[in-house]
Write a structure and sequence with these properties.
This protein is an alpha/beta fold. It has 2 domains: 162 residues, Rossmann fold, CATH 3.40.50.720; 121 residues, N-(1-d-carboxylethyl)-l-norvaline Dehydrogenase, domain 2. The protein is 56% helix and 14% strand. Helix 1 packs parallel to helix 2. The protein is globular. The N and C termini lie far apart (49 Å). It binds nicotinamide-adenine-dinucleotide.
Length: 294
């Protein structure tokens, strides 16, 4: 079966490769030519536009930065809806605002095109391994129809509810991850300033109640001073912005999210926006003049 894949960055590249390895014919498109070329080497075919990809494929996956990019690719000029036939399925795996997902779902439905929001958690390593956690909003029968494709890229795919529910779930995920990295950074700065080796602290507490997937993934990066992305600070700013906006709309108060957002804004202003979000530790390093290193 032919699957279209639009958005071939840190995540889209390995996800498209996994579809290829599973035997799907993959037609790709990205505005950055180098990113298309990397996938051509792996054996995919290139489309000349999002519209052209949609003309060729019944299933189209998008993996783009944020709501405006997904709207351009799906509803814009030379976009997916210009090329899609009735019955086409769009799986948007980008992390975007739930309200934007609902707007896109409506525009697709009016054209007889099916759409689900299916953002992911797990980052680049799990995108490479095909073990992402996938959270889905939209029509249940569409989820069932594409379940096997989702499971090529993920270790789990959970139906969360109507259109937008996947991205609401992802916002909850992103709040927890950001606050967890900030908590880890704050605690490890405390122990570093008090003179205890951060590696000893990590070894001592990772198996206890404070241990977490975030701690296991990010402490080794922090103690090595390796902030290569991974998941970029600028993308986490985007997610927390969507979380704060959604929180204001639905009457949920997010004081801790707002605090971590300010740390991310400082890092962005200092030119660290393209660093991995484990770089939240660099906020603490900057204000204390101390680094958390082994
Ligand atoms: P990225 O910036 O590496 O890749 C995005 C790609 O989209 C780029 O190649 C870019 O050129 C392309 N693009 C942008 N506008 C386009 C357009 N109009 N037409 C075609 N292509 C276009 O980002 P990423 O890290 O791969 O993240 C993609 C999405 O996945 C984001 O929503 C992000 O929040 C989410 N996500 C990322 C991670 C991670 O660890 N990187 C983890 C989970 C979820």
């Amino acid at each position: 079966m032919k699957v279209g894949f639009i958005g071939l960055g840190i995540m889209g590249n390995p996800m498209a490769k996994n579809l290829l390895s599973a035997g799907y014919e993959v037609v790709v498109y990205d505005v950055i030519k180098e990113n298309v070329d990397k996938l051509l080497e792996a054996g995919t075919k290139a489309g000349v536009s999002s519209k052209a990809v949609a003309e060729e494929c019944k299933i189209i996956i998008t993996m783009l930065p944020n709501s405006p990019h997904v709207k351009t690719v799906i509803m814009g000029e030379e976009g997916v809806l210009e090329g899609a036939k009735e019955g086409t399925i769009i799986i948007d795996m980008s992390s975007i605002a739930p309200l934007a997902s609902q707007e896109l779902y409506k525009a697709c439905t009016e054209k007889g095109v099916k759409m689900i929001d299916a953002p992911v958690s797990g980052g680049e390593p799990k995108a490479i391994d095909g073990t992402l956690s996938i959270m889905v909003g939209g029509d249940k029968e569409v989820f069932d129809e594409v379940y096997d494709i989702l499971m090529v890229m993920g270790a789990s795919a959970v139906y969360c509810g109507e259109s937008g529910a996947g991205n609401t779930t992802k916002l909850a995920n992103q709040v927890i991850v950001a606050l967890n990295i900030a908590a880890v950074s704050e605690a490890f700065m405390l122990s570093t300033k008090a003179g205890v080796d951060p590696i000893k602290v990590f070894d001592a507490i990772k198996g206890g109640l404070a241990g977490s997937t975030v701690m296991n993934a990010k402490v080794p990066m922090i103690t090595e001073g390796n902030f290569k992305p991974g998941f970029k600070i600028d993308l986490h700013i985007k997610d927390l912005n969507n979380a704060l906006e959604t929180g204001h709309e639905v009457g949920a108060h997010l004081p801790l999210t707002a605090s971590v957002m300010e740390m991310l804004q400082v890092l962005h202003a200092d030119g660290y926006g393209q660093n991995d979000h484990s770089g939240i530790a660099q906020y603490y390093e900057k204000i204390t003049g101390t680094t958390i290193r082994k």
